[in-house]
TrEMBL record, chain A:
Any GO molecular function: metal ion binding
Listed name of the protein: N-acetylglucosamine-6-phosphate deacetylase
Pfam family, one: Amidohydro_1
Stated family: Belongs to the metallo-dependent hydrolases superfamily. NagA family.
Organism: Pristionchus pacificus
Keyword presence, Amino-acid biosynthesis: no
Positions bound to Zn(2+): 146, 215, 236
One GO process term, biological-process aspect: N-acetylglucosamine catabolic process
Bound cofactor: record note: Binds 1 divalent metal cation per subunit.
Cofactor field: a divalent metal cation
EC category: hydrolase
Assigned EC number: 3.5.1.25
Automatic annotation (TrEMBL), chain B:
Listed GO CC annotations: cytoplasm
Protein known as: Glucosamine-6-phosphate isomerase
SUPFAM superfamilies: NagB/RpiA/CoA transferase-like
Ranges where the Glucosamine/galactosamine-6-phosphate isomerase domain occurs: 8-230
PANTHER family: GLUCOSAMINE-6-PHOSPHATE ISOMERASE (PTHR11280:SF5)
Amino acid sequence: MLVRYNDPSLRAVVAGRLVQFINCRVIEGGAVFRDGVLLDSARVFWEERKAADVQVDCCGLILSPGFIDIQINGGFGFDFSTWTDDVAAYEKGVSMVSRRLLEHGVTSYAPTVITSSPETYKQVLPHLGRRNGDANGAGMLGAHVEGPFISVAKKGAHPERFVRGTLEPSSEDEIDYVYGDTTNISLVTIAPELPGALQAISTLAGRGITVSLGHSSAGLEAGEAGIAAGASCLTHLFNAMNAYHHRDPGLIGLLTSKYLPKDRQTYYGIISDGIHTHDSAIRVAHRTAPDGLILVTDAIAALGMGEGSHVLGVQRVRVAGIRAVIEGTETTAGSVASMPLCIRHLIKAARCTLEQALCAATKKPASLLGITAAKGTLAPGSDADLVLVDDDIRVHATFIGGQCVYSA
Amino acid sequence: MKLIIEETADAVAEYAARYVRRKINDFSPSEERYFVLGLPTGSTPLGMYRKLIQFHRAGTLSFKYVKTFNMDEYVGLPRDHPESYHTFMHHNLFRHIDIDPRNVHILDGNAADLKKECDGYEASIKAAGGIHLFIGGIGPDGHIAFNEPGSSLSSRTRIKTLNADTIQANARFFDNDLSKVPTQALTVGVATVMDAEEVMILITGAHKALALHKAIEEGVSHMWTVSAFQMHPTTLFIADEEATLELKVKTVKYFKGLMELHRRLVE
């Protein structure tokens, strides 16, 4: 049976159904899956001698692994860091963001909590644990806690009163005191120059949590020490860190450091929305360390709300195009760029190939989080989390576990 | 014999694919009556495969009731090796069309008993009712499948040791490392192809010009195995201009004069 990629029959979950995507462009890997898992199509053909039960005509679109966003603060009016003591409302908000992200081709994400009080972490984190996506929404990869162990000087939009400037005397006690249970945390952004930070990095890494350096005034040496202690990423490169100075390169200097570990890739997030990082800076980063570039939206609750004035928590934010400012000021309120927009912009800004840009939103974030066995590629054995896009990175359909969960 | 001369390799691919589509559709295959196709690998038929895929996508051609038999496969090369003919066929044709994998036949170069594999292959061609249309490309030395110069014109499916030229020519597909090139292959014989109801040979490029000359302007010779098809009642050669460079002007003019008629065969 041959159907189009947006055929309603693909919305159903059918056990044992062998589905093959045809007439699509694939960067690497296969386009055959069954029971939500991608298969080696040649092996199915030659060993099982089985033809697909359903062939899906992708009309020449590009088949990419579903997008992965490891830094997103909220969207569609909901903010992951705002707790109102209404558990049901919070859960509803999280579900709503998960559902709406399907329109953006995002099939998994790390809900991001900015610098908050210890009480808030303990309230929100239990609702941000890892879960697979389904028809109701994108999967969650565990929370990205951005702070509170950051540099006051580089706090950005984070509330200063919750910033914690030291992890001494015991970083482990401090971590547990602030976050409570760390089970639901997959990624921590921390400033490596803080007292006790290196110990904290190694503690976190030891718990299987990915550590990213950011919101930091660190010099290059402190950055290198952070990486050596177990960090593997830089949070939104260029933003909330010292500018590159030729006599004091700061964290940006890590792009070319010879002290980076050889056995693992060091990554960095880039907000490629045309506002938070100048195209020239994107180019510099991409030319210098192309393998490390990961796209993040760093989107705020105004993502997906359209133009105009929106009330977000206690702030009033005005959105014009993809620029969001605090009403009545020119102060940027954060990013409102979708992942497809960031991919599209990266191609233009970095003058890179579409393949490289897609990889920065799929395989590389999955690799940073150590989840490539299931996410981020089309390799056999991976979850069939897929997105069909055209050459302008417009999302035409999103699949999770082989089930069509969105079509334009 | 027919000789179709097209301007470019792309036009050769187009003609060949249209011819195949015409043959399959005129046959109107069904569950009781399969169309049986012999298929080659290599760079020459690639363009034709692309067109066949396009026809399938456009809905003008289905392989639902088509059985295929491939010409050859290396011995000892893993099936999933990027240079195996299994990989080539799956990658370039089968995964894009609606063929039932059970109707696809390729010699197994990793079979425990290679002789038995070859004999079994001949038997399954017979069981399928013989091949309706065998498509082939040829090498610059006039070989068809792995029937290199000197192969018996009455040869059947068998194990063939590859000659030094072929191994050298194939090294580019194996990291330019001669030691990695398989030295043996399983291949249908010249007589296996001769048994087909119709044979279609694709020849493109100036480097194949001498082979085309030997194939159609000189006598039948086992040193140019493709020349055997002079003895086949229905052979169709499809060549581009470049491949005709060694032919007599008279030969070219004769066949070009028939082009109007030949065009009608694929309309």
